[in-house]
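Exam review. A common question shows you a sequence with its structure tokens and asks you to describe the fold in words. Practice with the pair below. Do the first one on your own.
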Amino acid sequence: MEICIFTEPQQGASYDDQLAQASAAERLGFDGWFRSDHFLRMGAGDPLPGPTDAWTTLAGLARDTRHIRLGTLVSSATFRHPSLLAIQVAQVDAMSGGRVELGLGTGWFAEEHEAYGIPFPAKRFGLFEEQLEIVTGLWSTPVGETFEFAGEHYRLEGAPALPKPVQSPVPVIVGGAGPKRTPALAARFATEFNIGFRSEDVIAETFDGVRRACEQVGRDSESLRTSVALPTIVATNDADYLRRLAAIDADPDTFAEVNIAGTPDAAVEKILRLRELGADRVYLQLVDLRDLDHLELVAAEVLPHVR
């Protein structure tokens, strides 16, 4: 099982904050460092220093780290034209020596679109599907050939389909709890299906659904990695546990109901249950990037027991 760190820099984090967490995650032996792709803080609190662009950040980390996997969980299809996104990801993949993964989704946070004047159509699933077709199509087009696409939302004519990423293919992460359309797209385009912020019963049911979606298109379900993302708070005493909950404005009465929470032993038990449900990878959502002691604790007391 792979264990990755997942964070939310829009809540108030500079590039240096992100670099410090990603570098510590690499040094401590985590498999990957992934970030959200948002431009507006969620909830009350200090928004400074303001948002950072996900793919600009990952380009910097591609040069400032050496081994750890890097990616988005997930980029919004509303933010970038798919041709530009394909070029950006391919370039960052080259800058990292082939360590990049693209998580892509429909987008959901209407307020950030309104704040920055980014179009937010009511129906986005068709847009999302065409983006997956274009990004993967551009990358898979043989060198010397061109890529054509004519859809409802995008039209490409004679695209040279360059540059090519180092990886072939670049891992593509698609996720969600939808019962039909999202699993079907994952079966067609993704290397990984992810579900986040759900109970174990929902995770098990969703994993079953994505396996059926693979069977319906004649794909071996074992070729599609399955993963879970959950907020994580680990501590060895009540004071540290409550302090870490308060730092992310989490409710101490409900946080442990679904999430990875409590002592290191409790965290290990939860992660092992997720593995039994079929998770190949778990993303530990650590929103307080500056609490590197939290990262050190998880690395020392949890990581060795779930590998």
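Now try the second one, then compare your answer with the model answer below.
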Amino acid sequence: MEINKKYKYTKTIRNWLLLGLIMLVGQVIIGGITRLTGSGLSITRWDIITGVIPPLNAEDWLHEFNLYKETPQFHKINSTFTIQDFKFIYFWEYFHRLWVRALGFIFLIPFIIFVIRKKINGYLIKRLALVVLLTILTASAGWIMVKSGLVNRPWVNAYKLTIHFVLALLVITAMVKTIADVYNYGTSKVLNSKKIVSLVIGITFIQMIFAGLMSGMKAGLYYPSWPDMNGEFLPAVLSDSDNWIWHNMINYDSYLFAPALIQFTHRMLAYLLLTVTIYMFFKLKNNVTAFSKKWLNTTLFLVLLQVVLGILTVLNVAGKIPLFLGTSHQLVGVLFLISLLFFNYSIRKQKP
């Protein structure tokens, strides 16, 4: 892909876009914490304007708590909750929603100012419009996801959670592309081995899908061992052909098949991703510019760290996913994707 962006963006524009990327990553991580703490269903309504204001007195808290008591999650899992317990899970879901509102605020007002003052060109307006559209889709999918946990099941639907997560990654991907273009990433150096980079990016996105399913199905809880899965390489439930039916994939909370399949695939993809990333590193490390080499080094470091964190997370499961390790595993996974994308854009051909 060739780029030739003659338009010069100010340092303010560049820093604004970087801040947006940081906040997008923060939103994904806060969402992960919300999931791990079981907080996602604590707020049962989506009030875009009035929802900015949290409960301010005992009466408001009691009202919110009573709404939560009507949910399946309270009846089936958290029936012993006190109002103090409720305040803890409410905080994370509120913070998650407040962060995305702040993200919109930080983007919208400067965006309008920059357009009025003609500080950004048509290209950047279109790119940011795409980011905004994807963000709206992500937020909408998030609310659909939450609603899926307010009826019958005491948790959100794993497949809807995965859609929400993947859309968030697409927002980040779109923002990375925008930043790479604004910073005029590229090289005049000819590189004939870029297919391996596309392969690694493709495997990474597939792995991210399974990561969302891992979280949604709480699949990490069922096989808290490594390198085996409760003493087996391939869980016995996957060896029985009778289990390979769609019913077991839909009813993942009642049958072990789907969590076993998702965790096994997630592990195998992790080994594959580690292998191809190492191969990419040694194949390209002597053929890229010093700037690109920094991103390449970063991808190698992050994939190694990610594998270690994944193993530690599984080994430290004790009835629930450890919060720090689980969150760190998700953060490093997102950072790996970002570094991989920046590396990819740094080796594309650029006209003088």
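Model answer, second protein: The two ends are 14 Å apart (CA to CA). The CA atoms of residues 63 and 223 lie 39 Å apart. Full marks require stating both points clearly.
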